[in-house]
């Protein structure tokens, strides 16, 4: 995958669902965690599970989640 943003690979640590969106935590290094707010539909579409590899894709104003 080629993308014009900074990528940090890590492991999904947890996600907390709300009524419309979820907060997804990815540990990108020991003791360093990033949190992304994505829709519940996106969580379902990514088939994300806690402990599974994930990638935090960061732009200056956004953090997105990508999986292969």
From TrEMBL:
Classification via InterPro entries: Mo/tungstate-bd_C_term_dom, Transp-assoc_OB_typ1
A Pfam family per the record: TOBE
Gene3D superfamilies to which the protein is assigned, alphabetical: 2.40.50.100
UniProt cross-references to SUPFAM superfamilies, sorted A to Z: MOP-like
Residues covered by the Transport-associated OB type domain: 20-65
Region annotation (Disordered) ranges: 1-21
Transmembrane domains' residue ranges: none
Start-end of Basic residues biased regions: 1-18
Protein name: Transport-associated OB type 1 domain-containing protein
